[in-house]
Each structure stands twice: as C-alpha cells, then as structure tokens.
Design a protein that fits this description.
Elements: H1 11-23, E1 29-39, H2 41-48, H3 50-67, E2 71-78, E3 81-89, H4 93-115, E4 121-129, H5 138-154, E5 161-163, H6 167-187, E6 191-200, E7 206-216, E8 222-223, H7 225-235, H8 238-258, E9 266-269, H9 280-291, E10 298-303, H10 304-309, H11 311-323, E11 327-333, H12 342-345, E12 350-353, H13 365-380, E13 384-387, H14 393-401, E14 406-407, H15 418-424
Parallel strand pairs: 4-5, 7-9, 9-10, 10-11, 11-12, 12-13, 13-14
Antiparallel strand pairs: 1-3, 1-4, 2-3, 6-7, 6-14, 7-8
Helix pairs in contact: 2-3, 3-4, 6-7, 8-9
Length: about 425
C-alpha cells in the first residue's frame, strides 16, 4: 500500500521493511535513516491553499527520492513529515551528514524556485545504524530521528540537520516531566517570586525591583527559570505562570501599602505567548480591580524580539497599558535584532540594555562608545535607561558617568526572596 499523494510507502508498510533491513545488516554496511519536514509548511498552506500545498508535498517527496543517495524506502508519516532510508558502505559518518545537508539545499532551492516562497526550509533528524547497534527496533529508530528533527527545527543553522545522540532522550524526558508537573506546581504553590533590586545610579538607593520566578520543589530544591521557562513557553503554559506571578506582585504591593511600608515599583515579564490573543489586558484589569494599587508601582517588560516580530500587537499592548497607567519597558535591548527604529515607533518608557553590553569586566573603548551613545540617544527620546549585568564597581561608575539612570546586577544584589526584599526596603 502506498501514500496516494506522494507515492511513498504507507507508514504501516514502511516499518516492517525498515525492521527487516536492520535485522539483516552486515558489518560492511551502514543504514542512514532520516526524518524530515518543511519548516513553515503551515504558513505555506494557509497562504497558498491546500491544493498548492499538496502539489508541493508531491514535489517534495519526488525530490527526496531523487536526491537521497542509495535510496531504499520512504514513507510519509503525517502531513509534511517524511522518512527515508538509504544503505551505504560503512565509512565516515561526517560525509553522510554532509550528503544530507547538500540534499536538503538542493530540495530547498528547487521548491523555493517553483513556488516562489523563500521561507521554506527542510529540517532533518538522522540516525545511523551499523552492525554494532542494530539491536534496535524500527519504531524506536523513527522516534529518535523525529526527536532529532524537532531539535533541528529549533536550530538556527542553515543546514538544520541534526544527528541523534543518546543524551537527546534525557533532554526530552526532562521536558516531558516539566510539562506534566508545572500545572500541579502552580496549584501547590511551588512557584515563588524572587526580586532583584534596581539601583538609582545618582543616589545609589534602591529604586525598584524585578520579579523573577523560581520553582521550589517539595524537597527544597530550587529550579531556576532557564531550566523550565523556555520549555513551558513553547507549550503555552507560561501564560498561567505569568498570571501567577502578576497576582503575587499585585498582592505584595497591596500588602505593603496597607501596612504603610516603603514601596518601590516592581517590574514583571511578559511572555511572547501573550501577544497571540492579548488576553493579558483583561487579566491585568481584573487584578487592578481586586487590589486597587497605584499603577505607578508596576512596570511590564516586553522583549525586543517581540517588539520586532509583532510590532502592531506590541503597539496595542503598550497603548492599553499606558491607558491603565502602567509603564512599559523593552527588555533585552541589544541582544538580538537591535532595530533602533523601534524606539521611534513604540512609546516605550524605558529600555533595559542587555548584559551583553557588559561582556567583560574591563570595559573596552568600543563598548564604552556604544553604551554612552545608546544612553544619550534614548535620553533625547525621553526614554529612561537601565543596564543589566553590572558586576564590578568600575562598571557601575562608568554607567553613572555616562548618565545611565538605573543599574541592576550581582554587584548590588542577586535575586532575593520577598522577605529579604522587605528587609532591604
């Protein structure tokens, strides 16, 4: 039985064929299995119609067959996901890897030329089987290739071909554990807000703080954001975590006001996931109704990347939050696109200069020139500046000398608990 669209084997027929050649493999041969898809295929379908998408898939399969060296079998698993198998003389795997990269380039160029769509890119996960490791079943091989393909999709390299390695399974198992337990972590109050102070450059006094999430497991182990936030951001679960953090911050400020305590503005991060629907606007309005705190004590941070990739929604977000009285800052300025036109297009209140500007403790001439000119430019646009990653007194003194408004970094304080922040205040 074959797939009517591509002419490749059906998946049910392909798997036993693959298993047969795995079992019969000899020492002088190597099997190369690769699992590929077309990045941005959904965009292509939505833009050009499903009929044109089907035509592209047929051409894609034909090109795979024609350009896969020593092609044996192939199958369309689902949609644009296709697996091919080739048999080679046992030799240098690097050469075989390069062959796949070269093949993908040929296919990409052909499809881009015919369908006038330069966004199309082939992403591939590969697996090599020799006589030494052929005690593996076909389903596992395909699963491993698929895992490598998913990593390739996240890869910024042009070739986007990733060879499966055993440690990738550990990575995916870790991700699965995070995704399956984050909801209960929120429910059981395992997530807590830490706060990193911000320092006024002129006075040296704390002028605010940034709320940062930590995950405290029942055994007391602390999981830091870089270990779980990117994972839940891809799944969309970051939205619930953000909402939890917003509620914590509003409640904290409300309690400080009720107790007559000293208060400083607290900034909270906004994930790019919120910009798909902007439901965050109504959620924050509901928090404001419940806690009724002065808006001047809360600042929302959106990243430079979000501002660049979805400027229209970023503009709507900023206008809505300004109407509610909140300030909005651009986080990670200088870490990615660094499009200066954003500063004139978007009514940002403050930019947070990424710590990449302070890569060395001993600032070089070029770094000093860039930092001082960015600060001067933003001040002329009536935008405040904050520099992250300050770790030495020399860095702090330089930032003060060039007019940086606010500083943040380990030189002043690491992120602290709510109780520790209250002591500092």
């Amino acid at each position: 039985m074959t797939d009517t669209l591509t002419g490749l084997d059906s998946y049910d027929e392909f798997v036993p064929k693959l298993q047969q050649i795995i079992d019969s493999l000899t020492e002088d041969k190597i099997i190369l299995i690769d699992y590929s898809d077309i990045k941005h295929f959904k965009y292509f379908n939505d833009t050009y119609s499903y009929k044109t998408g089907n035509d592209l898939l047929a051409d894609y399969a034909k090109l795979l067959i024609e350009n896969t060296d020593n092609f044996l079998y192939g199958s369309r698993v689902v949609s644009d996901n296709m697996v091919t198998v080739g048999m080679h003389d046992n030799g240098n795997k690097d050469d075989l890897h390069q062959q796949i990269c070269f093949r993908n380039t040929i296919i990409e160029n052909a499809l881009r030329k015919k369908y006038k769509c330069n966004r199309l890119r082939i992403c591939t996960g590969t697996y090599f089987i020799t006589k030494e490791n052929n005690n593996i079943d076909a389903e596992t091989v395909i699963s491993n290739c698929n895992l490598a393909r998913k990593i390739a999709r996240e890869n910024a390299r042009e070739d986007s071909v990733v060879i499966f390695k055993d440690e990738m399974s550990s990575k995916i198992n870790h991700e699965i554990e995070i995704l399956s337990t984050i909801d209960s972590a929120i429910k059981n109050n395992e997530l807590i807000a830490y706060y990193q102070p911000k320092i006024n450059s002129e006075t040296g006094i704390i002028s605010g703080a940034e709320a940062l999430v930590r995950w405290r497991k029942p055994d007391g182990t602390i999981i830091y954001p870089d270990q779980f936030v990117p994972i839940i951001e891809r799944s969309g679960q970051i939205i619930q975590v953000d909402y939890f953090m917003y509620q914590q911050v509003f409640q904290f400020i409300n309690e400080r006001i009720a107790e007559g305590q000293n208060i400083v503005p607290i900034s909270i991060n906004v994930s790019r996931q919120h910009f798909k629907k902007l439901d965050i606007i109504n959620y924050v309005k509901s928090l404001q109704r419940v806690y009724n705190i002065p808006a001047k004590y809360v600042e929302f941070e959106i990243t430079e990347t979000v501002c660049m990739t979805d400027t229209v929604k970023a503009l709507k977000f900023i206008h809505e939050f300004h109407e509610m009285g909140f300030k909005v800052s651009m986080d990670d300025f200088g870490s990615g696109y660094s499009s200066l036109y954003l500063l004139s297009e978007l009514p940002i209140d403050l930019i947070k200069m990424d710590k990449c500007f302070l890569q060395t403790q001993d600032l070089q001439k070029k770094e000093r020139v860039i930092i001082s000119n960015v600060i001067n430019m933003t001040h002329q646009l009536d935008i405040q500046t904050l520099c992250e990653g300050v770790e030495t007194p020399e860095q702090s003194e330089f930032l003060k000398s060039v007019g940086c408004d606010i500083q943040q970094g380990f030189y002043f304080s690491r992120p602290v608990t709510r109780e520790q922040l209250q002591e500092i205040l």
